[in-house]
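Attaching the record inline, Q. Sequence:
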Amino acid sequence: MKNSKDKNGNIIKERGKEVFYISLIIVFSIVMWGIAMPDNFSSIANGLFDYLTGNFGWLYLITMSLFVVFCVWVALSRHGKIKLGKPDEEPEFSTISWFAMLFSAGMGVGLVFWGMAEPLNHFVNPLNLQGGSAAAADFALKTSFFHWGLHPWASYGVLALALAYMQFRHDKPAQISSVFIPIIGEARARGGLGKVIDILAIFATVAGVATSLGLATLQVTSGFNFLFGIPETNLVRILVIGVITILFMISAITGVDKGIKYLSNVNISLAGIIMLICLIVGPTVLIINNLTNSFGIYMSSLVRDSFKIGQEPWYGWWTIFYWAWWIAWAPFVATFIARISRGRTIREFVGGVLFAPTLASFVWFSILGTMGIESGMEVAEEAIATTETAFFVVMQNFPYGGLISIIAVILLVTFFITSADSATFVLGMLSDKGNQNPTVRRKVTWGFIQSGLAIALMLSGGLGMLQTGSIVAAFPFAIIMLFAMVAMIKSLNAEHKVDGIVDLNKVADTTLEDLSEADELEEAVND
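Structure, as predicted:
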């Protein structure tokens, strides 16, 4: 294995195959445990999850809220002008393609899956309110905004910003462990502690994406059954995963600037078409009124809801579960967002990663949520009986509902593909020494592993338990991401300390170790 040396001559071991193989062993061991002894695995995973959400719900709330505060602060501060790259670098992708890719990777499949189902769940079973009432309708949209708004995107933004800064500003490997170099030094980040961090990131990514692939497959086959009468058999599900695997592998192999970018642009176009048609055939004025009304309720209650946790099981089932799930997805989504964000300033980055997708999510939930609520309590109860078909159940009550449903199935498939190919690309990066353009062999390997796990778990009924297991395993990432903020602040302050001595543009290539020794540099310049 090829080694390198730091500035002091210490040997730094590069992590390539060892992280890859250790990650594979851990992933397969856990999955085989789940398949061979599902009851035992489920019992332990659920027990740990209940313990974490029951005893550390406060930590999830505080951590996610700090992410929002940090992102807003760093964008508005003097650091906002710093470029994620060298001073003369321009963004690698157009703003539209950049937004399309980060949005598709971050929430695409989930928005189709829950866009109708979540508001209706809260409308029928609101917290401490009467189901079906006007207050329940307000609660349904406001809560959907909260769960899919600033907080999840801030969790992605914190880690993605730190990764992009280290990769493009200081030429460090595209691995989660690189974020910690300002705190623990490069030798330790490349050592045992760094390996543990990177392996945890790979496991969280594989488990999270395999689960999502399986759940998305269930919705696709449910849509086929609802719309065309195609039976929901295991054979059909395997065929769906097989076809999509071929498509996302082609996309991942062609690279970010071709397959992934193209499909992401298609995603945004299809989502825009669905929203436009729904806005026209649905209760247009009511949708707009609900958007503005729910936005106002969301903003006015943001601080209270961000820190509120009660004794009701509802908080564990919804808010705490969501916060844990977003953190579990952060290593994958953040790594991908960082990869496509080279050349943008920190202020541009926060605007594109935090505020723009949050507003897009609000519009999506306002349109679909309003259409579902206006369909009435009977339709709402029928829709939430099976989450996979909630969208289709509601749409059959509106003009052109069949057309909208067909477009939604196509969108689900394209979102499905972009999430999978983005994950395949990220796993290749994380397990290939942080290579921003991992080898085809590494991407193909991870692509087949993801699909194989999704099939195995879907057939064994273990998708839910793997989702729970991944959330439990990702709990340490809450702590890791807090330290990522500390490391980022330390690095940014060091840059500005140097900026007081010489032009910041002239020190963009300065090593992180040099930045951490800004005091010595200042003394030398003064002398």
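DSSP finds 23 helices and two strands in the chain. The radius of gyration is 23 Å.

More tomorrow.
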